[in-house]
């Protein structure tokens, strides 16, 4: 196992914990959203802060970085669009009546989920609500989008999938705003989801310690992945494998098409809070304040990255650098050269975006107590 080398750079400009970290599609910039109510743009070339994004009136829960614009959402019930060159706020999206948990930009639309029990679709250009998706009985935590090219003619406008603390996921027709299917089966809050859009399949993780696969067109539950002993906090879907990170301190790898468990990644001393697959290596972030690199095929632990003081909320990888963002307020850059190369050709990117629950619940309590998320959610 490789040793835990020191960080290449420590960026400690934020005055509060970092809730989310987003990498631009071109890989040139990073965006962090913080408890201090600000977001910051960083250069991946040298790790310097390029711009400070100020304007939110409460903590930033989540962010997404595109090549030409940055998007942030906040506990102040708003979403903001920013110019990535100047840091100027270009648009404020108002309409939610409680904390905005998650945003997703796709097909020139902005999707959002909120504690107000709704999800919404917005026009990116006009900043106006185009659709409201109402039907969940509790807060909407996470969401994913399947674009029109992947869908049948009946749902040509694409589908939005949402997960909620009401123990359901819902599939919505974006064009009409109507609920297409309700995915029932979980007995606890749906904390995370990941989508295989071409295969019309959603994978959901829950406080009931299971991962479930669903056909989003028919609403049928396809299979249940049972072996975790704690809440499933984060999911990653890569090359027909599902990786699930849990409060039981493990990551499990499953065959997406059969539900068979093929591998368990151990060594974590607390809940697994973040996952990222990159070039044959599975990177994890944990409530024990450490990031780890595993050989994705063998499950062997290759390296431990030590230096953060609190839970790691999000991780990204670009080139030969690992980026970790923590509730301690620091963004750390780590050299990942020297890790064993993959044994077989790996996909250039995962089938879908990573949707984990970290960063959705910024609260004043110690974020290292990830295992208590379930109890808090179910009392909302």
CATH level 1 name of the domain at 6-133 = Mainly Beta
Distance between the termini: 43 Å
Q: Which fold does the CATH topology of the domain at 6-133 refer to?
A: Methylamine Dehydrogenase, Chain H
CATH architecture of the domain at 6-133: 7 Propeller
Q: How many separate helices?
A: 1
| Number of beta-strand segments | 33
WD repeats: 11-43, 53-92, 93-132, 133-182, 183-224, 225-264, 305-337
InterPro entries: WD40/YVTN_repeat-like_dom_sf (IPR015943), WD40_PAC1 (IPR020472), WD40_repeat_CS (IPR019775), WD40_repeat_dom_sf (IPR036322), WD40_rpt (IPR001680), WDR86-like (IPR044715)
Organism: Bos taurus
Protein name: WD repeat domain 86
Précis, in short:
The chain contains 1 helix and 33 strands. It has about 375 residues and is mainly β. It has a 5-stranded antiparallel β-sheet, with no helix packed on it.
Task: Looking at this protein, list some descriptive labels.
5-stranded antiparallel beta sheet, 1 helix, 380 residues, Thrombin, subunit H, mainly beta, Methylamine Dehydrogenase, Chain H, 49% strand
């Amino acid at each position: 196992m490789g040793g835990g080398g020191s960080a290449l750079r420590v960026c400690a400009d934020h005055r509060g914990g970092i809730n989310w970290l987003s990498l631009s599609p071109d890989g040139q910039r990073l965006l962090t959203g913080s408890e201090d109510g600000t977001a910051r743009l960083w250069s991946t070339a040298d790790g310097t802060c390029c711009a400070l994004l100020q304007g939110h009136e409460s903590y930033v829960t989540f962010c997404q970085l595109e090549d030409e614009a940055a998007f942030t959402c906040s506990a102040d019930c708003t979403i903001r669009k920013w110019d990535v060159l100047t840091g100027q706020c270009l648009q404020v999206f108002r309409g939610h009546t409680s904390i905005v948990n998650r945003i997703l930009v796709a097909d020139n639309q902005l999707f959002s989920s909120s504690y107000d029990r709704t999800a919404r679709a917005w026009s990116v250009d006009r900043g106006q609500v185009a659709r409201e998706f109402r039907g969940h009985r509790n807060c909407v935590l996470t969401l994913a989008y399947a674009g029109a090219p992947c869908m049948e003619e009946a749902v040509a406008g694409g589908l939005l999938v949402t997960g909620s603390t009401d123990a359901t996921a819902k599939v919505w027709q974006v064009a009409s705003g109507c609920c297409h299917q309700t995915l029932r089966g979980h007995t606890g809050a749906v904390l995370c989801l990941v989508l295989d859009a071409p295969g019309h399949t959603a994978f959901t993780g829950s406080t009931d310690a299971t991962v479930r696969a669903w056909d989003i067109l028919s609403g049928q539950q396809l299979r249940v992945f049972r072996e975790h002993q704690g809440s499933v906090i984060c999911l990653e879907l890569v090359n027909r494998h599902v990786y699930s990170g849990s409060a039981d301190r493990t990551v499990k790898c499953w065959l997406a098409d059969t539900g068979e468990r093929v591998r368990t990644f151990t060594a974590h001393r607390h809940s697994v809070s973040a996952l990222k697959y990159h070039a044959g290596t599975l990177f994890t972030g944990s409530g024990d304040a450490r990031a780890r690199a595993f050989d994705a095929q063998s499950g062997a632990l290759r390296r431990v990255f030590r230096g953060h003081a609190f839970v790691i909320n999000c991780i990204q990888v670009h080139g030969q650098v690992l980026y970790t963002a923590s509730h301690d307020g620091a963004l750390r850059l780590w050299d990942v050269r020297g890790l064993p190369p993959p044994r077989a050709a790996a996909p250039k990117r995962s089938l879908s975006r990573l949707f984990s629950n970290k960063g959705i619940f910024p609260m004043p309590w110690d974020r290292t107590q990830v295992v208590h998320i379930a109890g808090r959610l179910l009392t909302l």
